[in-house]
Amino acid sequence: MSKLILCLLVAAFAWGQDARQIVEEVQRRSRSGSEHYEGSLEVVNARGKITAKRWLYDRIGSHGNSKAVLRFTAPPEVKGVALLIVNHPDRASDQWMWTPALERDRRIALQDRRTRFFGTDFSFEDLEERDVGQYDYSLLGEEMAGGAACWKIESRPKQSKSSQYDRSILWVRKDRYVFWRIENYLKDRLVRRATYGDLQEVQSIWTARTVEMADLRENSRTILKLEKLEYNVPMKDEGFTLQALRRESR
Amino acid sequence: MILLRLLSWPYLRKHVLRWSLTVAGIVMGVGLLVAMHSANQAVLASFGTTVGRIAGAAELQISAGDFGFDEEVLERVQAAPEVRVAVPVVEAVADTGIKGQGNLLILGVDMTGDRSLRDYDLESGDQAIIDDPLVFLAQPDSLMVAKEFAERNHLEIDSRIPLQTAHGTKYFTIRGIMRSGGLGKAFGGNLAVMDVYAAQKVFGRGRRFDRIDVGVKEGVPVEQCRAALARALGPGFDIAPPSASREHFEAMLSAYSMSMNVSSMFALIIGMFIIYNSFAIAVTQRRPEIGILRALGATRAQVRMLFLGEAAVAGTIGSLLGIGAGALMARGIAMYVGGFTSQIYGVKQALDEVAIDPRIIVAGLLLGIATSLLAAWIPARSAARVDPVQALQKGKYQVLSAGEGSLRRRAAALAAILSAVCLWLGRSNLVFYAGYALAVLTALLLAPMVALWVTRMIRPALRWLRPVEGALAADSLIQSPRRTSATVSALMLSIAMVVGFGGVSASIYLSVTEWIEKTLNPDLYVEASEWLASYSWTLPGTAGADIERVEGVEQAQMVRSARTLYHGVPVMVVAIEVAKLAQKVHSRPIAGDSREMYKLTAAGQGAMISDSFAGLRGVGLGDTLELGTPSGMLRLPVVGIRRDFSDQQGTVLIDRSVYQRWWKDDRTNIIRVYLKPGADPAVVKARILERFAGQRVFVLFNKEVRQYILRVTDQWFAMTYTQAGIAILIAVLGIVNTLTVSITDRRRELGVLQAVGGLRRQIRHTVWIEAVTIGLVGVVLGLAFGALNLYYTLEMTRRTFAGIALDYTYPGPLAGLLALLVLGAALVASLGPAEQAVRGSLVEALEYE
Amino acid sequence: MIELAGVSKVFDGKRKVVALENLDLVIGRGEMVAIVGPSGSGKSTLLNLIGGLDRPSQGEIRIDGSALGGLSDDELTRLRRDKIGFVFQFFNLLPTLSCLENVALPLHLRGWPRKKIDERARALLDLVQLGNRLDHTPEELSGGERQRVAIARALSIYPPILLADEPTGNLDTRTGAEILKLVHDVHDRLGATVLIVTHDATVAHSCPRTLTLCDGHIAGDERR
After folding, report:
1. C9, C109, C162: which to substitute to probe chain B, counting the most B Cβ within 10 Å?
2. C86 touches chain B (CB under 8 A)
């Protein structure tokens, strides 16, 4: 009797270790010193109306230590609006927005990260890079999804992360160690679902070139296409500061 | 009940006019009460709902008076673990420049987080636009307006409207329309939402917020969150639920509320006199009827009940009509009050609908009935005492019994002594108001006797003027004091009331003009707002130096003034360049050494307070003043007390350097500009405007500012005029009533007069003279009692809100004007009755009994 | 002096009351006429019509040749105050005025100078033997005294016509007799035309002419 319980506990521990290792492997394989792409977004709202936006994305560093700048290029009325994200390995990221017409930055408060990122179905938080260390994982099982074998892993944020979600379920493709889908839950309700498609190998990093984020409360979805994707482009750290945002808007 | 139907109804039908007048007395009293109360409530409520609607789901609001505070406070608030959400707010009232639309309340919020506090509830059609807050934020001209406002002005998405900003008139684009209800209904629908950072820029706030709205984390008690924030932020911030601002607003309205309460009180007492008058007359006239009733076996109690029943019916009808009339008047009064609160106090509020509280309806009804029962009590009692035998004899004239007179005198003497004692002791408010009430009582008790003396004194003059008509008129009054005493009393009270308020107005006017003369001596005022009372528009701290560089300017003194809380009460803090001020203003302080106090204040080692602040807050010279600032508690000794009417709640004057240090703000909202000798103000004004082109700058001449300040006193004058109106109405009502009765009573006498050759003209004259005499007696008594009432009103003013001892100045011109008006009104009131007197059959008149 | 031709007076109340019907009457200058008749026979109405206090429903009344019908209210009043003195049963003195003021009242109404009024009023009160009670108010006087004041008032303008409605009706017999004597005295001295409405047979008998009214008709016109 007691042996059986011990066995199960060990098994669970082993499974847990497994889940973490899987996600760590995902993170390791996607690691790159910097990233640049041109994002094209299509937001399809509940009534099927489509709005299009474009942004430029630059990232330096990776995961817990990355910094990213996201700069809107279209439509013309939002051109120049930029978002600076500074990720931290041990706590939630800092985010600032720059509005060129006002010539000023504003801090996106932690409390506001749950809100939609300017009319897309991403929340501010969804734009951060997840660092593996900020979550606890458990393997739920394996299943075929999106035409490939996947691990199904549950992640729960640690206290320090202060995430808007209570838990997420991740599908990781066994073949490429990339996410196929992430479902985010609030209590037991599924609120957002990201699906990664158009898998391509870019500079030997398997990358999903389209991300479809669905907001199940609003019944709308956003399709982000990563165009002109490049990894390890030379970038300078100084480009990822508020001063740089200010400078570049001029 | 049967008696009421059998006896009262026919009498009522026969004297419709008089009963209408009686009822009118109650209508007026109850109407004023209902109207003023409802108006007050409506103004408070609309302020409350505007605050409530704007606050949305915010449980706490953080502010630092009207000064605002630095942006960095927001992060400190957001860092508190008890806070679920904290949203910065910039609020401003801006002129739309659209005709007839007036002002728009602009709510600057941070759209990223704000929707968890406020539900904008957008028109569904605009979903896409608002779903894209990026456009809203990226374009600083974005505006979201309430549906009502949009419909009134035929605005649609992408319509553009002009707004007065810190940089002149700018056009804004509507990028969202809020559905009506909730936020969209606040400020009467004249509401617009803007990005908070855009608002900072547009309204010249620098990097400051006016307020932070806080939603408390689930499961955390609001009070715990408040305490945590108070600890985190220090004493300079007011952290309170949104409802607290209503209390502050109420405090600001206290002066108005007080005068309103006093007026409705007076109105009711006056109404009571009119009722008393009518009933006293009715009892006299119906003596034979009462005699018959008694002879037929009616008990005294039945007779008394008959009259009280009539009073109850009259009271009910009058109250109901009064409630109706009050409801009609309430809106007008509310609009007036709402208007001056936003203009004088700079309060952001717009009137919604004026609802009549069911409680005030019930109170009005009860009060109306109670008043008329009370007023009818004595007449009913004397009716019950009617002796059947005497009553049935013809031609008996009733005279004021000697016993009653002496009783009155004794009661009056007692009341007078008690009132004097109260005055002498009068520290506490209760004793003071008791003394006031006793003084009124004394006056009322003495009024009939004094009225008689005055009439007797006037008689020879009247007789000399018009031997027959004059003497007859005077005699008519002397002979039946009952008939006139109530009217005279009512007149006396109302005139005394007008004199009281008028005197206060005059005193305030005098004090204010004197203060203006001594301290408001700059040649020009440069301001960020066209209203002095608006503290939310500011200019940068460099503006002073900029102005001093303008040709013709000798000196510019930068002022930053705004309300902040002192021990929970909003007071005005004026930060000024004291060293410069001391060179230009030489008013004698009320307490403290003139040179020393300016020196200490300029050095940041003290503060000067206004005498009203000293009086209201019980602060004296040498006391330490504690002011909460964003940097902590500022403690300064009071080094001087001066007269300052900038604000009714009192002002605290500190040096600009102290303000800059403690509030971390170097902006200014008023700049006092002194010109070089010989410089033309108009020319310099033009130069200043030129230098500040493209900015929201107003340059006012000294004269304009004076006129503006004097408008503060206008609210008192308006009150006085309203009351003068009431006094005149009472004069008309009371006199018509009295004359109608007098003419009925004297029908035979007037018949005789005509029979022996009196022309109609002469009869008319008699009636006219009678009316004017009543008016005159009322005026004499009223002006005399007014002298005492003025004393009480001044004292009341000092106690409740002014905090300063105003000089006693009898409003002579007002008294003269009032006398003329009342006499004129009396004459007009007599025209109808006079016509009635000469009409009708002579034969019947001669046989009339 | 006084002419009535076809005079009728109908009171329009809820019920029509015919007080006088088609009356013709001529009273000469200086006559002294008693009008008698039962209650409701129209005596007082007749007196009121002649005195211009009331207007006839039909017919015409002439005083000194001028027809009353064509006069306005004020003209009627002028005629009254120049030509007619009234004495009422209930005296109708103004209670607030002194004897002197009561008597002076009609003269004041005519706008006479004060001094002349004073002289005349005093003289008249002397005439009615009340010269010692000038400043008393009516309330302080006995019934007879009040009526004497009333007569003095009626005479204050030396009217050519004196109308008295039951002048003794409210007085005891002895006082009544005194008043009657006074009226006769006035008639004799001033030569005024006097009409007395009365119930009192003594009063009627003392007059040279007696008109008897019955149901609005002249039932008898007796001269002695």
Report:
1. C109
2. yes
Asked if the model's pLDDT at residue A5 lies above 60, the reply is: no
CA B425 from centre of chain: 29
Q: What residue segments make up the domains of chain A, in order of their start?
A: 2-249
In terms of pLDDT, which residue wins out, B432 or B188? B432
CB contact under 8 A, A99 and B197: yes
B231 plus B90 within the same structural domain: yes
Element at A203 (helix H, strand E): none
Is C67 part of the contact surface with chain B (CB cutoff 8 Å)?
no
Asked if residues A220 and A121 have their Cβ atoms less than 8 Å apart, the reply is yes
Residue B408 lies in a domain: no
Task: Give the mean pLDDT of A125-139.
Answer: 78
| pLDDT number for residue A14 | 44
Residues of B in contact with A80 (CB under 8 A): 138
Closest CA to B489 of B280, B259, B322, B741: B280
- Find the mean pLDDT for residues B471-493: 80
Across the interface, whether the CB atoms of B139 and A111 are under 8 A apart is answered no
Q: How many domains does chain B have?
A: 4
- Residue B847, pLDDT > 70, answer no
Residue C109, amino acid: L
A102/B78 CB distance under 8 A: no
Q: Which of A126-130, A211-215, B318-322, C26-30 has the lowest mean pLDDT?
A: A126-130
Nearest residue on chain A to B124, alpha-carbon basis: A47
Handedness of CA B205, B209, B211, B215 (dihedral sign): positive
Do the chains contact at A106 and B83, CB–CB below 8 Å?
no
Q: State the alpha helices, DSSP H only, in B345-401.
A: 358-384, 388-392
As a residue count, chain C comes to: 224
Q: Do C53 and B753 touch (CB under 8 A)?
A: no
Can you say how many angstroms the Cα of residue C148 is from the centroid of all Cα atoms in its chain? 13
Mean pLDDT of chain C: 83
Q: Which residues contact C184 (CB under 8 A, 6 or more apart)?
A: C32, C206
Contacts of B64 (CB under 8 A, 6+ apart): B236, B237, B238, B564, B628, B629, B630, B663
* pLDDT band of B656, cuts 50, 70, 90: very high
Least confident of A61-70, B109-118, B472-481, B561-570: B109-118
At residue A178, the 3 state secondary structure works out as: coil
| Residue range B501-530: mean pLDDT, rounded | 82
Q: CA-based Rg of chain C, rounded to a whole angstrom? A: 17
| Number of independent structural domains in chain C | 1
Question: What ipTM was predicted for this assembly?
Answer: 0.78
Q: Please give the residue that has the higher pLDDT: either B102 or B172.
A: B172
Give rounded-to-5 percent helix, strand, coil for chain A.
Answer: 25, 50, 30
- pLDDT on residue B128: 40
User: Token pair of B747, please?
Assistant: 């029908």
Domain boundary among B241, B265, B283: B241
User: Contact A81/B134, CB-based, under 8 Å?
Assistant: yes
Residue of B nearest to C52 (CA): B755
Residue A230 identity: E
CATH superfamily of A2-249: Lipoprotein localisation LolA/LolB/LppX (2.50.20.10)
pLDDT given at position B780: 92
pLDDT of residue B608: 92
Structural domain contains residue B422: no
For residues A205 and C73, the model is more confident at A205
Q: Which domain does B451 fall in, by range?
A: 447-521+706-849
B604 pLDDT exceeds 80? yes
CA of B846, closest CA in chain C: separation in Å? 8
Query: How many whole angstroms separate alpha carbon B798 and alpha carbon B432?
Result: 12
Q: Residues B505, B511, B514, B515: is their CA dihedral positive or negative?
A: negative
Residue B414 has pLDDT above 70, yes or no: yes
Q: Is B399 on the interface with C (CB under 8 A)?
A: no
Q: What is the mean pLDDT of residues C199-224?
A: 84
